[in-house]
What we know:
Blueprint: H1 10-27, H2 30-49, H3 52-71, H4 77-97, H5 106-119, H6 130-151, H7 156-186, E1 206-207, E2 222-226, E3 232-237, E4 241-242, H8 255-263, H9 269-290, E5 302-305, H10 312-325, E6 334-337, H11 339-342, H12 349-361, E7 365-368, H13 384-399, E8 405-410, H14 412-420, H15 423-428, E9 431-434, H16 440-454, E10 457-458, H17 460-475, H18 479-482, H19 485-504, H20 512-516, E11 517-518, H21 520-531, H22 543-551, H23 557-578, E12 589-593, H24 600-613, E13 622-625, H25 637-649, E14 653-656, H26 672-687, E15 693-698, H27 700-708, H28 711-716, E16 719-722, H29 728-741, E17 745-746, H30 750-763, H31 767-770, H32 773-791, H33 800-804, E18 805-806, H34 808-818
Parallel strand pairs: 5-8, 5-9, 6-7, 7-8, 10-11, 12-15, 12-16, 13-14, 14-15, 17-18
Antiparallel strand pairs: 1-2, 2-3, 3-4
Amino acid sequence: MRQEDxxxxxxxxxxxxxxxxxxxxxxxxxxxxIVLVMAILAAAVVxxxxxxxxxxxxxxxxxxxxxVAIWRKQxxxxxxxxxxxxxxxxxxxxxxxxxxxxxxxxxLLLLPFAVVAVAHSAPFVRNRVPCRTVAWTLLWSVPAAMLxxxxxxxxxxLSWVIGWLLAAVVLGWRFAQSAQDSRVYTRQQARIPPATxxxxxxxxxxxxxxxxxxxxxxxxxxxxxxxxDGARVHQVAAGVPERAAPDPDLxxxxxxxxxxxxxxxxxxxxxxxQIHQLTASVEAARRRAQAGYQTDKPMQHFVFLGxxxxxxxSVARIIAKxxxxxxxxxxxxxxxxxxxxxxxxxxGATAIKTNELVDQALGGVLFIDEAYSLVNDGEGHSxxxxxxxxxxxxxxxxxxxxxxxxxxxxxxxxMEDFLASNPGLxxxxxxxxxxxxxxxxxxxxxxxxxxxxxxxxLDPEAEQALARMMDDVGRRRLADDLGNGRFIRSLVEKxxxxxxxxxxxxxxxxxxxELLTLEAADLERAFVELTSRFRGYAxxxxxxxxxxxxxxxxxxxxxxxxxxxxxxxxxVARLRDRQGLVSQPPARHFVFTGxxxxxxxTVARILGRIxxxxxxxxxxxxVEAHxxxxxxxHLGSTAIKTGKLIDSALGGVLFIDEAYxxxxPGYAGGDAYGAEAVATxxxxxxxxxxxxVIVLAxxxxxxxxxxxxxxGLSSRFGAxxxxxxxxxxxxxxxxxxxxxxxxxxxxxDALPVLEAIFQQACERGRIDELGNGRFxxxxxxxxxxxxxxxxxxxxxxxxxxxxxxxTAADLTSAVTELTREPGQx
Length: 825
């Protein structure tokens, strides 16, 4: 048996017994309560006759209990007596300071106990918190009465009249408040019928109210739940524990008001639909109970999935209000928590800390943000502290499901992994609500609403600038990274700060309109500040500029043609989508084959710019990687390492050079580490296809063998671009461009030598071995080194031409060193 499925703890049984005693005291008739109060008074008199230390201890305990009872809103007679002890102590103190102490003080000593009796017996006053009624009454009556006793000691009747009259006035005031609350309450609740039926048969059952199912039955009709002895343990509405009357310290909320607040939120269409269905389900359960059918309490625990800033906390508060309005929760409160609020500093402390947190949330909603952090199995090691918190949370979620709603929130993928880590999570948190990121139009509406709430406005140019910014965020799919609604709040706040700096810079007294109007420059400044932290965001590539950069490359004509085709396909797909036409999803992952030094990394960067320009990527950045960046040191760590690498590339391009190294058939028993990396890569390539472009590059033959090793590679990496080797003329042009970029040039006599070098390398079939374009760069760099060695002997006599021109001798020296066979000197 799992821990969370075990029996109720002893503490739960003790709580039930205490609740039964409280219920018996509350339901006792007035004469019984008066006898009980007199018995407690007699006990107090006996305690005063005990030795001084014992009597003082009893009085101190009573005085200490009073403030605690007020703070915790306790409704027991003992709580009210603890408060009354303060009034009794004040009366005795003043009487002791005004000798002689006579029997005339007795009517004042009886005043606190009379107030306690009224607070627990009057039908309307008991709707208030009784100990607070006692506190208010004695706070007004006792000081005034004792002042009269102090300064008019000869007329004790005056102090009696003042004390008892003020007490009656305060109790009347509380009576009027309770009567008003009861009138509101009776519109929502039906009267409780007497419990009927043989004891035992009705144990734990819901007893429908008298006249249940009649037309006009008010919502939230109250029924009684009986224990095995036939005693009414608590009241339920549609299978729910209900308060005896509305707490005056809690707001009056209706289901309609809570649902209207939800509907007023911007966006979140799917979330609203789910909450409406949930509300209808609870209402249906209430009506079934009204019709006399047995029904379970419709309490649920939830999982909120989605990016930050999408209103998860706000919706949690609305759910608390809905369940509170139905009478399912004691208060519409939401207690927010994170991992640090549940996990202790050592094993054993976590369960205590988690239980204390749940105790604070009882009667309301416990909202745990980033709940997936409770299971942080990094590098293959189990998170024992987090698992302890999860176990304690699961047990309390089951044991206290009648008094608590738990909401776990976080990102989609991390939360799915978290829920799969423990079978109890999936079974107890069955309802998932997905929060989608805001669209550009919704972000614009959020900004306008935020400005209206602040009493600010935009000038016409600022309105257009704000719309462009939201479109840009949507095109780059950056809303989730920026934080959705949180980004809008920060944007408005920072734009306001920029406006304040601008209007106060002149030193003149600004007009009222200037203090409340944002200009386009204010928004631009705030927008740049908020987005500058994202890599590559400042770059705003266009398809035309990306293709122009491609066309400027030397050679690679087949590659250029194929990239132009890819760009055209992406453009047409976007146009078809805008017109509502069906289009094939464009290729997102590519295989680059060919020898080294043929521009594969450069073309990958150009592809990233094209995808970013069309809004298919957040940024045009390329993350380069090799086998060592994906494979871990032991089985299990490879998947983690590969996942972290992919996370770092999300929104851009992941370029894996020599990808064929992930499949190494030479290992005995197979390459388990490489296979784990490939499996992880394939899964993420599919899961994150809307946020990532992956390029696998390598030699043609090796890549063919690698793609055949796993059928998933061929299906997910279907777009293939073959890079040819450079010709001698193209290599010579590449070398000249490299020299020009470095501020150098080749001597006219050196150009034929340069062409001859490349011609000879190509004819001998060594150009791929030497690295194509890399060979051209290495040749130039070596020639520059030979030139620098020669010019250094001229010292101060060297001219500008000597310092920048590469000669034929320099090239001859460089090629000799680069093409020397291994072992030669």
